[in-house]
Task: structure prediction
Amino acid sequence: MSIYVDLLEFKRGILDRVRRDVAKLEPVAQRAAQADLKIIESQMDGYQKRLEIWTRRVWDLHGLWLDPEGRRIRYKGGEATLTAREFQLLQFLLDHPNRYFTVNQILSQAWAGPALFPEEVRNYVRRVQMILAALEIPCDLVNQAGRGYSLELRVDN
Result:
């Protein structure tokens, strides 16, 4: 899993650099660079899908269980009940591990665009962080400036 995370980060760096520098190229080179961007993005999609498959498998092996009906989470004998928005946020982030989402992306993709302020999203993130910590689930819900929020599984090598 850590290899896929590293590959995604490496490819993300390449994409950022090419996108930044493509305007400085001659038109023929720009077209070639655009084609390369599509190849890299396709590779990243594959890496992301494999990372999501392996992350779900690790969660299954570790005993993480989500109950959408009762909005409960269980992990190694511990259990918590979440609000609807907490559960939706956690489910969304678990479905997309190690990917960063901005506040606007969370609003539109996790909650289908409810009329919340960015501060409210941060409050829900903090509440989910406290639940994860209380249940001692080996993951971190992190915020990286400029990229957004991500749920990252802690993996022992």
Q: What stands out?
A: Helices lie at 2-21, 27-62, 84-95, 103-109, 118-134. The longest helix spans residues 27-62. The chain has a mean pLDDT of 86.
